[in-house]
Amino acid sequence: MRNPLSDKIVEIKPSGIRKFFDIVSEMKDAISLGVGEPDFDTPWHIRDEGIYSLEKGRTFYTSNAGLKELKEEICNYLKRRFDLEYDCNKEVIVTVGGSEAIDIALRAMINPGEEVIIPQPSYVSYEPCAILADAVPVIINLKAENEFRLTAQELEEAITDKTKVLILPFPNNPTGAIMEREDLEAIAEVIIKHDIFVISDEIYAELTYKDKHVSIAQLPGMKERTVLINGFSKAYAMTGWRLGYCCAPALITEQMLKIHQFAIMCAPTTSQYAAVEAMKNGDDDVEMMREQYNQRRRYLMHAFEEMGLPCFEPYGAFYVFPCIKEFGMTSDEFATRFLEEEKVAVVPGTAFGDCGEGFLRISYAYSLENLKVAIGRLAEFVGKLKEEQKKSC
Amino acid sequence: MREQLLRIIEKNSRIDLKELAVILGVDEIDVVNEMAAMEAEGIICGYHTLIDWEKTSIEKVSALIEVRVTPQRGQGFDHIAERIYKYPEVHAVYLISGGFDLLITLEGKSLKEVSAFVSDKLAPLDSIMSTATHFILKKYKDHGTVLSRKSEDQREKVSP
What is the set of domains in chain B, with CATH numbers? Predict the structure, then answer.
């Protein structure tokens, strides 16, 4: 029989998280700090609206780009929160999570061989999606000393005459890093100078703990070269509803819509009705969740300080990214031993790019009570490792 | 800080003050002072425990009683409300809008005890026109907390 597979897909490595997931699911009593989704249930009034739409028999396709009412609410929201103006008829697509938007944006913009710059550590799907779109991924290894922000110099050095798109993943999963206005202004200059485009994944935009999130599309001259991606998963705790959106100039949106139309048809109808409610009446829920995440974030930073585990203070998403280099183990070894000895799962930084080596992603999408138990075990483990080191000296 | 502090201790009054300071990002001494100030101002009125008595072997009966009263000249409802809330078996007294005036929550050892309270003590009070007693059969949710179920984390243990 002939090989039924595409060489391109076979060569793509499976997600580094998968391997860890398999070990953890075998272990019945393990507790986890490895989750990349909110611990809150979707607020009831949003769920209720989804249920109501089903009761009303709203079980048909919507138009390809999404419910008109939802697209309008998305535009209202972007105007209200970030002073961004988009045409809801020509510049918005409601997608199946932010993930789909990443995929179709790359496919709509890339010609074979063009380069996509991907700062890492970052979400696991950018590189494979770029490869599937026939792009050549160019990785920028972000540095801990810059708090994992992207600098203009790093960007400048990565750009070649083949560069087409920069993926901008902030607030960042897994590091929790953010880009503030000055950081964005510095890189926007480089982007405009070299005439490249940005896919800005702002799925964690609502979860920042310093100033309000700034989108790169807000900067002068940037909106016309930016595909802005956002969604409902993180802000409204709606991961399972699979709903995101992208906003981009009509020229790009029109082509993205073709892929969306042929591959997906439309985002789930029930989810879209629920999302209308989220956008209209969900601000208080977001505020409540943000405050709770922030309390946990402060708790973790304090706990790390007490146990002597170095970690820069992250101001976004719901992750902290402590450094474990001092223990002379790889991230993978640390995470595996920690799981085996203390029964707590964390994700090795390397799951998000090679430069995540020496770091762990710890999620604080857990109640304070759960965090306390897990962090207590981490403190014990760190103490044990420090003892071991002393003895071997 | 006040609002955040209150929102936290409303859910968990047993939280350690040091921990409270950490999660609010302030000094412990400020938390201590703020709590003391709010106690003095009567903003914080008590630190209670939410108990599901159903799960104990102790028998308890709770009731809601709607009361219609004739307000007294110069004192409105306050005087009669005070007469009522002084009984230790009375848990809460609210002045409310709608078809009746006061809503009382009451706790007793048995149906008999609650009924006796209503007929012997409450109903005979001068300004009380009528009462309607509703016994509580089951508490599903109290003080914002669902009593019956312990929810489990349904998420996948590791996800990107």
Answer: 2-40 (1.10.10), 53-137 (3.30.70.920)
